[in-house]
User: Fold this.
Amino acid sequence: MKIIRVKDYEALSKRAASYLIEKVRNKPNMILGLATGGTSEGTYQYLIKDYKGNQTSYRNVTTFNLDEYIGLDGNNENSYRFFMDTHLFNHLDIEKTKTHVPRGNVKDPLKECDTYELLIKERGGIDLQLLGIGGNGHIGFNEPGSSFQSRTRIVELADSTRRDNARFFEQLEDVPTHAITMGIATIMESKEILLIASGEGKREAMRRLLQGDVSEDFPASILKKHSHVTIIADEAALTGLE
Ligand code: F6R
Assistant:
């Protein structure tokens, strides 16, 4: 794993965006895996800024997001589809039909999981997957205890994850209890992975990622077994490490 240490969240966002922009420029029809969440917001702002200033085109890019809450429609402000549309897709020249977020409000979510896996395969697999990391080491919504063999499926969210994400909802009770997430095996099949982490709230997770064992108790630890992982993290997340 290559670690890029940057000063703060602003620098992280800029660096992660430059990283992605270079990849898109080199392969305009790339298959890009995306994440939602607070950490990715700044990166997306810089992608938009670059698009407006330098016209980097996303017309031929296909995207697959990691996850979506079960029960939320894409128009619901708390859905990850809504997040992606408003924070990124609506501001680029990407074709909406090429952007994929699991649908959390379908009649048959189990079928949705299988369809999503198939679609990723049909498109030739993910070239570069952007990841955030949960305080408990989750990647996507693969919570501690998730099998390293897992594929896109329905999962129950950990209480700590629901509490972490409650800041986006009116109250904790509104945070869905279940989600669809790409599995760990699905994520590991990406040709390349870029993980971003910011703030002291991620420090313990970074310590376990960089210094701990590979264990299903800490899902992100599997990334050590991937041959092409880059981590961009800020000082606050890396204090006392390296
Ligand atoms: C979101 C996702 C999650 C987040 C993680 C960090 O699509 O897959 O794994 O990346 O929870 O979230 P933030 O960035 O809000 O700290």
Observations:
- The domain at 11-210 is CATH 3.40.50.1360 (Rossmann fold).
- The mean pLDDT is 97.
- The chain has one domain: 11-210.
